[in-house]
Specification:
Blueprint: H1 8-26, H2 33-40, H3 54-74, H4 82-99, H5 101-109, H6 120-144, H7 151-172, H8 184-209
Length: 211
């Protein structure tokens, strides 16, 4: 376990790992620099060498979550068909949510630290989040075209796809899910069904717009 004798770099990294452990064990509302110091066995002031406040540390934890999420989305197999690529992107989104529930809750279920725009750490977190959203937008630019006249359409459809995937991921983790008395085949097919419905919605929109 890291102690006061750890190098500054070691202590900085240890604070992030300890913060993640605190959140996993007790929830983000119990995260504090004092609790991180207690977990590391260092003085209460030691974490302040690297993080001026609890929210600065939380911003760094969230930045890493978004970076991990983006890398996972970026690692999908290349596909020349943008619609097939979109389906794979949706599948990976849902797999990440299922395999990394803590990171997923931190990214999409935790209020961002206050006054984030004033911190370099927070700006890095925002850029990581933007990259994750741009992964989706870039696929939709391949579907709709990348011209300036398509910007609003791409953005609107990106939010539509995201909200569908987020809703499904959230429902899948809800305590109510096992009590819905769903038909046995529904739970096995729900991911593909949702992705198929997204594809149909985008195709219908394209026909209406004639593109």
């Amino acid at each position: 376990m890291p102690r006061e004798t750890a190098t500054p770099r070691d202590l900085k990294e240890a604070c992030v790992l300890a913060a993640r452990d605190v959140i996993a064990e007790r929830g983000v509302e119990h995260l504090s620099l004092r609790e991180v110091a207690r977990k590391l066995g260092v003085s209460h002031q030691a974490p302040y060498r690297h993080y001026p406040s609890r929210d600065h540390l939380l911003a760094e934890v969230m930045r890493r979550c978004f970076e991990s999420f983006s890398r996972y989305l970026d690692a999908r197999e290349p596909n020349d068909d943008p619609r097939a690529d979109l389906e794979e992107l949706g599948s990976r989104y849902l797999r990440y949510a299922a395999d990394h529930p803590l990171e997923y809750r931190l990214m999409f279920g935790t209020p961002w630290p206050s006054q984030m725009q004033h911190w370099a750490l927070a700006r890095d977190a925002e850029l990581a989040a933007l990259h994750a959203f741009d992964v989706l937008r870039n696929v939709l630019r391949r579907v709709h075209g990348a011209g300036p006249d398509q910007r609003a359409r791409v953005d609107a459809n990106a939010l539509f796809v995201w909200s569908t995937m987020h809703g499904l991921a959230s429902i899948a983790h809800a305590d109510a899910m096992p009590h819905l008395e769903l038909a046995p085949e529904v739970e096995k097919q729900i991911v593909r069904h949702a992705l198929s419905m997204v594809a149909l919605a985008l195709e219908g929109e394209a026909r209406l717009k004639g593109a």
